[in-house]
Design the sequence.
C-alpha cells in the first residue's frame, strides 16, 4: 500500500506533537508588488518559528493575518485558496475580495523548510535599522528577506547554530554557508578540483585553447580548496558555537587569513580590466523640464540632453504617457503639435480599421480560420492571468481585461506573421496602465514590439543569440564567474531567458519595471544596455552562486526566486559602471563592441556577432518613418553633450592583458608556496 | 545534534533508500501544468496563476514504503512557439507528466503529440503519465474519460483525471509515478544532474536512464 505521505508541513497548522523551540513575532516580509498598493500592505507582519517535529527541525514563517483568516479551516490539509476567492466575488465585491485575495497573496509568502535543507543565508548588518535574513536552500530555493523589525535575528541564528556548522564567506561578509557534515569532506574537496577525474583531460585541452579563463577558474578552485583545508579544523563538532559567535560579531569583517589566501586571484581579476567607475543616478524628468524642452510649435529641443536625463533618472509618472510616446516611436522627436495631431488622428483610424478586421469575423468564418481561432484562445488564456494582482486589472469582469484582449487581437492583425506569443501580454500591461487608452497603448506596444520582435520568433533565434551574447560579454567582463557557470552546465545562460524575453517584467515591481523600461528605451549608454544589466545582476549574485556551489537547476531556481528582490537603482548603477569599465578597456574586442551596440562604423557590421541586423522590421510603417539618429550623436551617446548631472568619472585603461601573465604567475606562486 | 548523521528525514523514514528522479511537465499552454506542480509542492492553488516564461524548477519529496523519492520537477512553457526548448528539459528525465485540459479537445490532441515526441526522443525507459486536468469542470467536459483511458492503455501510459483546484488525484499521480520508477540499487549511472543541459544539442545520446539511488 502506498503511504500517502507528501511532505506538506508548511500548510498544516503547527501539529500538536511539534514542539516550538523558538518563536519571535514582528518579523516582516516586504512586498512592493505594485505602486498602487497602500504602504501598510507592503510589509506583511508575521512570526518566525523554530519547531521540532517528528519529521525534523523546521524553520517557519507565517503571516499574521493568514493565521487568523485561516482559523475556520484549521484542519483542512489542502487549503484551496482560489475557491474562497471566487465565492467571494458575487455578494460583496469590494469587501470580500479584498480580504480573501489579501489572504491569498500573503499566504504565498509563507516559509517552511527542514533545517537540513538549508544551504546558506544572507544577513545584513543591522545598522540600516533592523536586520534581515534571506534563507537559501540546497535546491536553490531563495526565500524573500525576513525583516526582524523588533530584533531577534541573532537569537534565531544562535538556535540554528546548534544544529549546523556555519561559516562566513570570505568574499561577502553578509553571506554564511552551511558546511557539510561529511566526515570525508577533505577527499571530497579534492574531487572537486577535478585533478584526478577524467574531466582533467578536458581541463587541459581547455587550458591550451583558453589558458586565461581556465586558469582563473582553476585558481578560484585551488584557493577555495586551500581555504577549506586551512579553515576547516579537524574537529568539526567543536566549532559551531565559535562560528556563531563570530557571525554575531557584527564588526569583525570576516576572516583575515582566507582573505589573504584569496588575494592572489583578486589581483588577477582586478588588473584585467580598468576599475569600475563610480556613477550616480539622477532625478526623474519632471513636467517643467519636459515643457521647457518644447518650443512654441511643440517641437522637442535638445533631444540628446533629454534622453540623458531620462537615462539617468527616468520620467515622473505624471508625464509618462506623453514621454513614452516619443520613446516608443509613436511620435517622431521632430514632430510639432500640428503634426502630432495629424499623426494621432491617422493612428486612431488605422487602429479601428484593423480592429474591425477581426471583430467582424463571425463564428462560421472563424471555424474555417483555425490559425486565428487558435490565437484568440491563446490570448484569452493569457489575458485572464496577466497582472491580476495589480489594481488596474484586479477583480472578475474588470473592463480593462477586455482592452488588453482587444489590443493583442488587433496586434495579431497588424503583424499576422508574428502573431501572439506568450510574454507579449506582460509587455503590454505596463504600457496600458500608463496610457489608459486603447489606441495609444496599441501603438506604443507596436513600437516596443518593433524593438523586440526577434525574441518572439518561431525558431527562438533572437533569444538564443542574446543568451550567447551575454556569454561572450561575461567571458571578457568576468572570466571567473563565466568559467564557473560553464563548468556547472550553465554556459548557455538559459537562466536569463525570462529576463530577456520580457525585459525583466517579472523581476521587478510594476513601478520599477516602468522606470527600468524608460531607461532602457533611451538606448543609453549603448544599444544593448539590457545585456549589461544582466551582467550586473549576476555580478551581485556571484558569491552566492559560487560559494553555494550551485549547478544548473539551483542557479535557475535561485534566479527565478529573486523576482521582486532586486534593487533597481543599485542594479542600474552597477550596470553603467560595468559598461564604462568595458568601454574604457583598450582590449575590448570589436565583436563585443558590436554586441553592446557601441560601434557604428559601417565597416564593422560584418563581424561574427550574433546580432543580425533585421532586413526591415516585419512591418513597414509608412505612417511613422523610423527616426535615425545622426551617427555622431549615437556614437558619443554616452558622454554626449555632457548632461552635467552625475557624469561618470572614468579612469584610463592602464592595466591590461600584457600584465596579466605576470599576475597569473604571482597567483600561481601564491597558491603553491 | 546527534540525529544529523542518520539524516532523519523526511517523515520519519530514517532508514531506507533515497531516490532522486527528474520529472518534466509538458502540455499545451494553460492546461494547468504550473497549477499541478504548485498543488503538489506547496498545497496551493492560484486562480490567476501567471503564465510560465522559460521554465521553473521545483522539488518535492514523497515517501513510498521504505524509500524516499525526491522529484526534481521541471515546469515548462506550453506554447508551440517555445517547443524548440523542450528537449533541453525532457532530456535525461526519468518521468514526464503530459497534461491536457478535459474541457478542451485541442489540448488532448496536443498531448498525444507530446507523447509521441517523448516516445521517440526521450530516454527509452521514461515513465509517462497522462493527466486530464480540470476535472472539477466536468460540466464543460469535451474529452471523455474512456477515450483518454483507451489511448493511455494503448501507449502504456499511467492515466488519471486530476484537478489542481480541488487537489483531486494530484498527489496520487505523482505517487503512481514514484511507484513505477525503478528503484533498484545502482540502477542509475551518474547523478542525474551531471547531465549537461545544452541548447542545440539534441543529438547527444541520453546519458543515464533509471533513477539514482543512494
Ligand atoms: N477549474 C480549474 N482551473 C484550473 C485547474 N488547473 C489550472 N487551472 C486554471 O487554468 C489556468 C492555467 O493554469 P496554469 O497552471 O498556469 O497552466 P499552464 O500554462 O499549463 O502552466 C489558470 O487560470 C488556473 O487557475 C483545475 O484543475 N481546475
Ligand atoms: Mg505554466
Sequence:
Amino acid at each position: 500500500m502506498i503511504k500517502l505521505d507528501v511532505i506538506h508541513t508548511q500548510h498544516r497548522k503547527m501539529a500538536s506533537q511539534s514542539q516550538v523551540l523558538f518563536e519571535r513575532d514582528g518579523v516582516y516580509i516586504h512586498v512592493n508588488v505594485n505602486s498602487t498598493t497602500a504602504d501598510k500592505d507592503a510589509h506583511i507582519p508575521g512570526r518566525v518559528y523554530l519547531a521540532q517535529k517528528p519529521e525534523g527541525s523546521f524553520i517557519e514563517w507565517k503571516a499574521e493575518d493568514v493565521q487568523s483568516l485561516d482559523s475556520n479551516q484549521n484542519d483542512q490539509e489542502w487549503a484551496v485558496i482560489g475557491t474562497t476567492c471566487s465565492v467571494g466575488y458575487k455578494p460583496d465585491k469590494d469587501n470580500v475580495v479584498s480580504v480573501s485575495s489579501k489572504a491569498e497573496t500573503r499566504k504565498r509568502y509563507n516559509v517552511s523548510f527542514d533545517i537540513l535543507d538549508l544551504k546558506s543565508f544572507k544577513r545584513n548588518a543591522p545598522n540600516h535599522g533592523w536586520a534581515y535574513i534571506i534563507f537559501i536552500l540546497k535546491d536553490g530555493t531563495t526565500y524573500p528577506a525576513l525583516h526582524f523589525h523588533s530584533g531577534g535575528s541573532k537569537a534565531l541564528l544562535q538556535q540554528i547554530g546548534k544544529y549546523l556548522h556555519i561559516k562566513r564567506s570570505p568574499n561577502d561578509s553578509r553571506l554564511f554557508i552551511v558546511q557539510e557534515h561529511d566526515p570525508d569532506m577533505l577527499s571530497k574537496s579534492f574531487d572537486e578540483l577535478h585533478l584526478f577525474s577524467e574531466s582533467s583531460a578536458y581541463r587541459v585541452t581547455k587550458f591550451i585553447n583558453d589558458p586565461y579563463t581556465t586558469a582563473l577558474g582553476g585558481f578560484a578552485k585551488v584557493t577555495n580548496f586551500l581555504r577549506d583545508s586551512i579553515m576547516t579544523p579537524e574537529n568539526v563538532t567543536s566549532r559551531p558555537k565559535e562560528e556563531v559567535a563570530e557571525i554575531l560579531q557584527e564588526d569583525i569583517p570576516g576572516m583575515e587569513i582566507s582573505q589573504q589566501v584569496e588575494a592572489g586571484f583578486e589581483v588577477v581579476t582586478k588588473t584585467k580590466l580598468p576599475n569600475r567607475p563610480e556613477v550616480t543616478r539622477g532625478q526623474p524628468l519632471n513636467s517643467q523640464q519636459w515643457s521647457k524642452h518644447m518650443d512654441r510649435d511643440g517641437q522637442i529641443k535638445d533631444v540628446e540632453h533629454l534622453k540623458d536625463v531620462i537615462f539617468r533618472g527616468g520620467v515622473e509618472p505624471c508625464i509618462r504617457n506623453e514621454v513614452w510616446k516619443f520613446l516608443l516611436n509613436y511620435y517622431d522627436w521632430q514632430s510639432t503639435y500640428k503634426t502630432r495631431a495629424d499623426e494621432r488622428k491617422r493612428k486612431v483610424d488605422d487602429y479601428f480599421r484593423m480592429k474591425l478586421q477581426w471583430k467582424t469575423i463571425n463564428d462560421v468564418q472563424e471555424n474555417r480560420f483555425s490559425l486565428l481561432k487558435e490565437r484568440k484562445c491563446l490570448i484569452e488564456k493569457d489575458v485572464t492571468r496577466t497582472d491580476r494582482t495589480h489594481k488596474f486589472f484586479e477583480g472578475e469582469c474588470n473592463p480593462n481585461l477586455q482592452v488588453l484582449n482587444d489590443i493583442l487581437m488587433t496586434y495579431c492583425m497588424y503583424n499576422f506573421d508574428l502573431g501572439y506569443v506568450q510574454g507579449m501580454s506582460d509587455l503590454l500591461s505596463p504600457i496600458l496602465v500608463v496610457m489608459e487608452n486603447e489606441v495609444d497603448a496599441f501603438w506604443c506596444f507596436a513600437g516596443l514590439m518593433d524593438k523586440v520582435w526577434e525574441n518572439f520568433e518561431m525558431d527562438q533565434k533572437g533569444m538564443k543569440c542574446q543568451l550567447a551574447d551575454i556569454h561572450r560579454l561575461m567571458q571578457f567582463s568576468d572570466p571567473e564567474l563565466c568559467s564557473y557557470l560553464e563548468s556547472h552546465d550553465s554556459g548557455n545562460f538559459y537562466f536569463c531567458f525570462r529576463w530577456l524575453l520580457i525585459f525583466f517584467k517579472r523581476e521587478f515591481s510594476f513601478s520599477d519595471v516602468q522606470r527600468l523600461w524608460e531607461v532602457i528605451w533611451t538606448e543609453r549608454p549603448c544599444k544593448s544596455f539590457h545585456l549589461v544589466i544582466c551582467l550586473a545582476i549576476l555580478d551581485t549574485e556571484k558569491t552566492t552562486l559560487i560559494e553555494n556551489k550551485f549547478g544548473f537547476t539551483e542557479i535557475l531556481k535561485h534566479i527565478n526566486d529573486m523576482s521582486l528582490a532586486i534593487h533597481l537603482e543599485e542594479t542600474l548603477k552597477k550596470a553603467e559602471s560595468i559598461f564604462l569599465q568595458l568601454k574604457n578597456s583598450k582590449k575590448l574586442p570589436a565583436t563585443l563592441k558590436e554586441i553592446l551596440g557601441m560601434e557604428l562604423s559601417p565597416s564593422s557590421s560584418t563581424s561574427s556577432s550574433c546580432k543580425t541586423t533585421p532586413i526591415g522590421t516585419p512591418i513597414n510603417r509608412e505612417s511613422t518613418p523610423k527616426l535615425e539618429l545622426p551617427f555622431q550623436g549615437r556614437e558619443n551617446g554616452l558622454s554626449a553633450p555632457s548632461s552635467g548631472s552625475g557624469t561618470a568619472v572614468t579612469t584610463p585603461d592602464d592595466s591590461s592583458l600584457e600584465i596579466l601573465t605576470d599576475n597569473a604567475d604571482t597567483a600561481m606562486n601564491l597558491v603553491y608556496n | 545534534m546527534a540525529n544529523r548523521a542518520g539524516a532523519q528525514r523526511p517523515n520519519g523514514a530514517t532508514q531506507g533508500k533515497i531516490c532522486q528522479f527528474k520529472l518534466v511537465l509538458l502540455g499545451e499552454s494553460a492546461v494547468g501544468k504550473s497549477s499541478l506542480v504548485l498543488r503538489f509542492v506547496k498545497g496551493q492553488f492560484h486562480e490567476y496563476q501567471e503564465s510560465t516564461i522559460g521554465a521553473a524548477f521545483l522539488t518535492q519529496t514523497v515517501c513510498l514504503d521504505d524509500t524516499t523519492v525526491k522529484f526534481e520537477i521541471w515546469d515548462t512553457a506550453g506554447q508551440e512557439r517555445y517547443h524548440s526548448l523542450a528537449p533541453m528539459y525532457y532530456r535525461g528525465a526519468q518521468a514526464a507528466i503530459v497534461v491536457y485540459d478535459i474541457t478542451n479537445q485541442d489540448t488532448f490532441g496536443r498531448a498525444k503529440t507530446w507523447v509521441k515526441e517523448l516516445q521517440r526522443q526521450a530516454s527509452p525507459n521514461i515513465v509517462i503519465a497522462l493527466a486530464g486536468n480540470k476535472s472539477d469542470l466536468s460540466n464543460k467536459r469535451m474529452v471523455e474519460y474512456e477515450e483518454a483511458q483507451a489511448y493511455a492503455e494503448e501507449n502504456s501510459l499511467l492515466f488519471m483525471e486530476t484537478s489542481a483546484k480541488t487537489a483531486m488525484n494530484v498527489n496520487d499521480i505523482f505517487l503512481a509515478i514514484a511507484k513505477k520508477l525503478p528503484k533498484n540499487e545502482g540502477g542509475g549511472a551518474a547523478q542525474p544532474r551531471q547531465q549537461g543541459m545544452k541548447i542545440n544539442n539534441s543529438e547527444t545520446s541520453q546519458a543515464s536512464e533509471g533513477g539514482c539511488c543512494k
The mean pLDDT of chain A is 74. Residues 516 and 568 of chain A are 8 Å apart (CA to CA).
